[in-house]
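Hi P.,

Sorry for the delay on this. The queue was packed all week, but I finally got your sequence through. Input first:
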Amino acid sequence: MFLNQCLIKIMRNLLTLIVLILPLIITSAVFYFFYFSKKEEASTTQITQTTTTTTSLPVIEEKISYKEVAVYADRFEPDEIIIKNDEKVKWINKDNKEHEIVCETNGEPLFDVIINANESFDFPLYSNTECWDPTVGEDKMRMKIIIQP
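Then the structure:
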């Protein structure tokens, strides 16, 4: 009889433990499934978007036409050029020291740039422009750029 009572107590305690622990296990399993399932979907979507973006970009080649101006110690060569609307002017410093190029259009400043020795600078121009090097002298080293209609 004593053994039966002990078994009944053990069974009740075991049943109580199962009733308390089983919902906790089920809840944890459901949470685990949904949490890791969504995390995997997000990373899969991200990879798909990256792949699509990189493979769908078109390659655009732009052909740019330049008119070159050489910058020497005391002059621009040529000191006057005519360009089309779709052309850029490229100044190439052929001196062994840096030069400052200042340009203005209709009396308005356009840019002021320093070009190191053996380097270049290009810029698109859309109206007639005058340029000079103030380090040599504004009146000594000047050039004109004329836009062809």
